[in-house]
Design brief:
With about 1300 residues, the protein is of the alpha/beta class. It contains 41 helices and 38 strands. Helix content is about 30%, strand content about 20%. Strands 1, 2, 3, 6, 7, 8, 9, 10, 11, 12 and 13 form an eleven-stranded mixed β-sheet that branches. Strands 26, 27, 28, 31, 32, 33, 34, 35, 36, 37 and 38 form an eleven-stranded mixed β-sheet that branches. It is globular, with a radius of gyration of 35 Å.
Length: about 1300
Amino acid sequence: MLCNGLGHGLRIDQAGSLRTLRHAKMHAGGGFGDERWTAVGWDAKTTHNVGKMEDDLIEKGLPGQPSGVVFKQYAGYVNVDESKGRSLFYYLAEAVHNPSFKPLILWLNGGPGCSSLGFGAMVEIGPFGVKPDGKTLYSKPFAWNKVANMLFLESPAGVGFSYSNTTSDYKLLGDKMTAQDAYTFLVNWFQRYPHYRTMDFYIMGESYSGFYIPELADMIIKRNMVGDTRTVVNLKGVMIGNGVMNDDTDSRGSADYIWSHALISDETHSGLIEHCTGSKINGQKCQEFEARVEAEAGNIDFYNIYGPNCPGHSNATIKANRLQGYDPCEEDYVYKYLNLPQVQEALHANRTKLPYPWDFCSYLLDDWKDSPSTMFPIYKRLIASGLRILLFRMFDCAVDSGDVDAVVPVTSTRYSIDALNLTVIRPWQHWSDNNKEVAGYQVVYDGLTFTTIRGAGHEVPRFEPRAFTECYDGMGFNPLEKLKRARQSKASVNYLTEDVRNEYLPIYIGPQDGLKEADKITILPGQPNGVNFEQYSGYVTVDPEVGRALFYYFVESQNASSKPLVLWLNGGPGCSSFGSGALMELGPFRVNSDGKTLSSNDYAWTNAANVLFLESPAGVGFSYSNKTLDYKTGDQQTAADSYTFLVNWLERFPEYKTRDFLITGESYAGHYVPQLARLILQNNKITNQTTINLQGIAIGNAEIDFETEYRGMYDFFWTHALISDELHQGVTSNCNLSSEETITETCETYLDQAYAVQGNIFYYDIYAPLCNSSIALVSAFDPCSSDYVRSYLNNPEVQKSLHANVTGLPNSWDFCSGDTDRRVPVTSSKYAIQKLGISVKTPWYPWYTQGEVAGYAVGYQNLTFVTVRGAGHFVPSYQPARALVFFSSFLDGKLPPTSPQDGLKEADKITVLPGQPNAVNFDQYSGYVTVDPKAGRALFYYLTESQNSSSKPLVLWLNGGPGCSSFGNGAMMELGPFRVKSDGRTLSQNTYAWNTVANVLFLESPAGVGFSYSNTTSDYITGDTQTAADTYTFLVNWLERFPEYKTRDFFISGESYAGHYVPQLAQLIIENNKITNQTIINLQGIAIGNAYVDYETEYTGMYDYFWSHAIISDEIHDGITLNCNFTSDATVSDACEDYERQADAARASIFSYNIYAPLCSSSSNTTPSISAFDPCSRDYIYSYLNTPEVQKSLHVASVPHEWDSCNYDILANWKDKPLTVLPTIKELMASGISVWIYSGDTDGRVPVTTTKYGIDKLGTSVQTPWYPWYTQGEVGGYAVGYQNLTFVTIRGAGHFVPSYQPARALVFFSSFLDGKLPPSDQK
């Protein structure tokens, strides 16, 4: 059973072609044509006139292609039958680097009849993708030609630009002719490109190429044995993605897959198995059930069952939701592009003026002549040939499968491999991508490897491109290293015992009138709107005789007159304070990745001061001298020039003459800043000299002392596990780092080894990714920022706006001039401070911002030392928020802050949550309700009212665990009105918040969860019974505090272990409502999601889900099925536990709560996910809810622990929980209240299979059969109405349904409140 996959569009696609062929086979009673066709016995129609590769060169590139393309492209035709005029079209993208050393890969798309140029090259793995304008191209970061030469063939004739002058050829096409023509193509193509003949050659493809590729490989191997040596093809391996293999296992696997992924009903699944698989296929009945699949599954994309549709090809009314780079409308753009005359001309395509437009799949191939029912005989021949898997050095039969494809799903592939009866060489195990995240699973058989790509659809590289290529870049510039080597090699450098001379030297003061106005920046190119501060830049001459002038950039604060003046200096020596300091660290703007536009830096130091960035000495950045000898300079001249600059600059900006002035900088500015400060203090004593009102200095990661610099650096390397014990001991024992003269050759050997062993890390921040790596660690700083800044500052338009490069400098702007640097670790700073021998006034303590430790501080006599946690060499780049807090403390002359904390209806009202967006039009309350005054047990709540609260019901939301927070998880991560942004301090509006349709009450229960607490520690050993009782007590008291809700319709909803909480609480409410003097709670219904309700089905459903979703192997699943009795804990045997451990190991480090979601800190920006939910949200929430001002606004008590998402001590000490609450649910179904059970279908922890098995146990009858429900023109999920029970799935959602699919969750929730099934129309 092959789904047609029309979610891709209304044109014919690969899945539609497969389905057509499937029906043809069904009516023919299986495969048709000679399934034992031979690869020999016919002659490849080679030709002497094979053409020249030079004629096929795309000399000027493709129309609209991006600049900077460094690889060659070729395209054209190869004749495969001259007598009939049959020619196949190809496109070759050579490898980006060293193509002669890279393998050649032939890529084939399936269908049959679909284009490898359109799908393979333009949509999936080629070097370019087409932009939405249909005219221009963009570079694909994971293009396969980064690692290989890629040859795309449109085959057979009639596909894409390939054609025949004999139209009857189109009626003769089938597997046999396709393989013969492809082989003939290769033989002739290799004659045209003879230098590729000896290169390693691989064939790869997907879909129906599961037949094409083995057939072609079989032909190549046999022809190699009997053919001319000139026609030998150096085949090394094949790889097939989501490929058909065998009709019966393909059909059975497809049926099982769409059922196990909750796309169809049990009844339809049974019908498919009975009538569409096995030896007795009932064609008419099968088609009836396939039609039911279409109706039940709805308008989804079977290529990627969790992907969005293109709005133009569905009834969707909203803009397509792009899955982190995947655009469902991309085929439209490609179709438009490849039909442009100028594109066809560049490709040397359509030279015969075909009477039809180029399209993805051909309508000409409607009578496929031969297609075997199975590839098993050919696979066995290939495997038996003796060619094995060995890093592709020998013949490699590799089968890969995207695991969210329903066209040729992973189950089909697994069933087919099982039928081959191969021996397992290396058992099922996970494999990781370059982010160290589980990218899929792999099992190696004797002669074949099976690999899954987690979260990928039918066109694997399209949905998960990073699984196939890795981007790599080096460390970029590494400022101070040259100076270090010069010192260690005892180069001639003038090291003064004192940093600057003590005598006063007269300075030049030039005229400055009118220059301030001339230096004013009207606007920087690409700057964002709403800039409310002034900017200036230009030159100050410091020596007119030699023409030496320093460039500055000055940014005033919004309230400039009340703020101090701060001079910022970067180090090097020789690095730019403008490019590094202003544009990459602490200035008001950051350069975007386009290198042309700017974005605002929310944590710019100009929020707290007027900041002056100076490029010093001459030769750095835009600063220059007309005398080239000036570029041989040092500390003394730099200090003197900087002082001269300041004196003249203050004449130009006289309003700052009396302003508080501070100097700060980093790295080698550990020399610049103290030396300049001392020169200022000395010259301030001269009565006729300009007085500079110096108030303080701050130097970061500063080089200030040679010995402690290097000793601290190598100690840092060792303590941070960058070098071995032996190397550290070698440096310690052999290196006297008191001066450069004391460094021996033995020492230098160890120092060199220490650098070499660390590999390709970025010394400025040892935990940061390199440029073009997809990893995001510690901070969100973009490691490629220096590239963007360099591009921006070399833009002539930018230089003109800055009044820079007025003399036409002979070199382009760059970050550093000449010398380079390495990072200066915290150990170096601490060792140097110890050398100062000053006393401690304020002992070492942690300082806080945003609710977490931001660093550490210690106050010495006349000196303050502060660390900034998680920051690299460029502190404001890596930790901008913390850097701004530190900088503000420095300006205020105070130590960084420690975190303060603070804690009936009006008292509970929240005035405003810190960082909440503007225009909030609803009321919020939070606080405590005591449920046991004697024990001091109090539960924390958060209420968010609806805009029209008086007309809306009240809903209590409970998260599970047991022990997890309904406030942090439920309100802040799932269904509340706000989501916490990645800065951990501000909030964004949740458009799909449930308080748009109800007043929602979030309760942290039991005591010990979140902000809830007890003064009696034994209360933290609790269970189901106490939790239900305390929650009921809470409700009764809360309703006294909010009496307007006493008679309001009341619902309870929750997820996970709330599958216990919710039914038990509902049962208690119904029982207590019968007591006449008791508060009546107007309970109307309950809804539980991905709910743990029954022990036995929990585990059987979970392991079945793992297997059906390609997470565990057949052997592990069989072992669990045969050895595990999940009736209770007591019935679980040792053998069962062993298989469970194997299942856990095989599952590896995926996020079980959404098996296709990326992990936090693995780079969400390159890891495609089914939803746009940020996997690090819990971290942001943790930060936000532990921020003192947030806790104060929430009226949080002084609990003896930090807020956390879950309290695992509560879970570990849980006392009572029944094995099943199904009897309680059955009782509630009979009570007359509404009972809904819902399930996100990508949750692996309490999966949809578990829920379905649990409902089966209830034994209730179906009233409304399974159907797809819709929202925004897309299938939102599936629903079935039972007697007194409704079951709903939410498509593409994990365990936390409103997090992953907020729009769909809100539609489901509204239907629940209305007491109606979710909508079945596609509007």
